[in-house]
Amino acid sequence: MLATLIINLIFVTKKTKANSFSFFSETASTWRKRRGGGVMATTAPAIPPISIPSTSYQQQLLTRSVDKMFEEAELSGVLLLAGRKLKEFPAHLALKYEISDIISADLSDNRFAHLPLCICEMCSMETLRIRNTGLRSIPSAVQLLQSLTYLDLSGNQLMNIPSALFSIPLQILLLTGNRLEYIPREIRQLSNSLRELDASCNKLKSLPADIALLKSLRVLNVRDNQLTHLPSGLLNYF
After folding, report:
1. Name one GO cellular component term (predicted).
2. H or E stretch including 138?
3. Does residue 42 lie within any of the structural domains?
């Protein structure tokens, strides 16, 4: 089942790229026809000078933009802060706006070394993405997120994950591209909920036998680790 899913993913990706290339070719061809033939004009149109905003002005724009994201989150229940290059979570904005009941948050591509504690207090959250932030630790307070079913921690610097994480009713847990050396046995607590576990591209040397107790598990990805064997119960499970 897992191999089939990976093949389909590659096929869709290639197809998408092919469609994009086709669209670009058709667009370029149409543009040349409008210019009167297959050869583009040799004289490029004049480009007006570009005024580069000062660093302080750019920072003001970023601050206003982040503030706007919180304002929208208060209305929509979705907090989108991906790619903002934030070095820390703007907790003062979390106090300014009523976002305790948001259901989804994306904090990816920032520079958080630690999961903000105020995020753990958003008890209605169902989906949380924190990809590529340099995250090094997860507080035990994460267990407060009792509505969370989707958690993406890919591309960080995690060396371990707290057992408190497995007291959440997770259905999808993505841990690829970290520095994990083991998966806690407490993962068995997700036996009735976890459907997908991606722990690929880590430093796992073994898997706990308890992973075979995950009776709802449908997708398991542990490639590109240092595994020498799999639990016998897991082989029978699939």
Report:
1. cytoplasm
2. none
3. no
